[in-house]
Design goal:
single chain; seven-stranded antiparallel β-sheet; 10 strands
Length: 212
């Protein structure tokens, strides 16, 4: 297993923890793209409090870790770490320009267009500027499995559930699995979780506990 640890700061920290609850795939993709750019141009900080951790082994996962909230998704790109971290998809280089174009598209009115032609107009414009493989990367991002898992330490909601007589429906420490509110479910934990334990929970090379 390889771990690359970076300190979350500035605009990326705000995107990850200060902009409210993630509600849709586009929100998550914008964070992932900005995290990839951040890792390409910043040095590692192993002892950071707020951090993004890229774990590469059988899984390629990004972990965004704060004191009371952490979440993880699959990294959508192949990772190379020499001489510095870089990314590609099926040998298509994911450089800063590519990341900017994809982010611009995801954050545009065209992304939510009702007409297919409106949706592809901006992609065509970018491809005419030399990024012929842009659509292949965007299609991959829109269809790959995110594998979203979040850890929360939420005393306020636990106290509320306890007052209503349903504490086990909202444990203080818990995982939320899946991004969509219609698909998510909780797994309660007996104690606070550390970033290293969160990584272990999602590491398929580790032995799994059997629930009875």
């Amino acid at each position: 297993m390889k771990k690359y640890i970076f300190e979350l700061k500035d605009s990326l920290l705000k995107m990850v923890f200060d902009d409210g609850m993630l509600k849709e795939r586009r929100d998550m993709l914008l964070i992932v793209l900005e995290a990839c750019r951040f890792m390409m141009y910043n040095d590692q900080v192993p002892n950071a409090n707020n951090k993004v951790v890229l774990v590469v082994n059988d899984m390629n996962r990004l972990f965004f870790c704060g004191k009371k909230k952490m979440f993880s998704v699959m990294c959508p790109f192949h990772v190379t770490d020499y001489p510095s971290i870089s990314f590609d998809y099926n040998k298509i280089s994911i450089d800063s320009e590519m990341l900017s174009m994809i982010s611009t598209f995801l954050d545009s009115d065209e992304y939510n267009a009702d007409e297919a032609l409106d949706f592809i107009t901006q992609i065509d414009n970018f491809q005419e500027k030399g990024k012929r493989d842009l659509w292949l990367v965007i299609k991959h991002l829109l269809t790959f499995e995110l594998g979203y898992v979040r850890y929360d330490d939420n005393l306020e909601e636990f106290d509320k559930a306890s007052r209503e007589g349903r504490p086990k429906q909202h444990p203080r420490y818990h995982y939320d699995v899946n991004l969509d509110s219609q698909a998510t479910f909780k797994l309660g934990l007996s104690s606070q979780l550390t970033p290293s334990k969160f990584v272990d929970f999602l590491d398929n090379t580790k032995d799994r506990p059997v629930v009875r």
